[in-house]
Design a protein that fits this description.
The protein has five helices and 13 strands. With about 240 residues, the chain is an alpha+beta fold. The chain has a single domain, classed as Glutamine Phosphoribosylpyrophosphate, subunit 1, domain 1. The strands form three sheets. The protein has a six-stranded antiparallel sheet, covered by helices on one side. The chain has a five-stranded antiparallel sheet with strand order 5-6-7-8-9. The protein has a two-stranded antiparallel sheet with strand order 3-4. Strand 1 and strand 2 form a beta hairpin.
Length: about 240
Amino acid sequence: MKLLDLPTLLQNNPYPGRGIVLGMSPDKEHALTVYFIMGRSENSRNRVFVREGDELAIRLHDERKLSDPSLILYRPSATVGNHLIVTNGDQTDTIVSALMEDGSFVSALNTRQFEPDAPNFTPRISGMMCFDQEAASIQMGLLRAADEEGLACDRLYYNYPALPGVGRFIHTYETDGNPLPSFLGEPRQVEIPMDAAAFSQSLWNSLHPDNKVALCVRRFHLQTQSSQYWIYNRHTR
């Protein structure tokens, strides 16, 4: 399957919403995770990414402008043993708790559903990369409203080998709209280049200038388990 160019995908989509990429560097030495958020309202745009310890955190840019903290402030990433987790909501905590209690990515997400923000019913998207000395793998989950009224939930799970130079990309919305149309299809297969710094800058430049809020790219060395971060914010904190 031909690999897609992620910057081009972003340039051609004014509002993918929140997006996750999990992949492997071409030299097979690093895992690469990408998480970005976009926003149309002042409340959604009033956020910044910060690194706290060895994880990513979401904080307010201006606390005076906060109108509703629900659904916008959460832990977007976590590392549990040999698992890297990235999600677009507080299901990060659900997955972490499940893994700590001998549960699984799927068993955790089976207890959750899409966000209660009618009429959009924003999908919950989640990704987890597992790595060991033998191989690495990627799991992704999409919890999406099954009907316009939000009465039922589609729970879709995907399992992939982590291949060198290949990433999987999932996002919340197909594009802009009212209501916002949920992501359709399977996570896209995108190219992961060797130069993570240039890749990060290209992604930030490719997100719609009016709607982008923050972007984080993390490169995780599989042997040393050390991380490098590239963080971009609409606002300076």
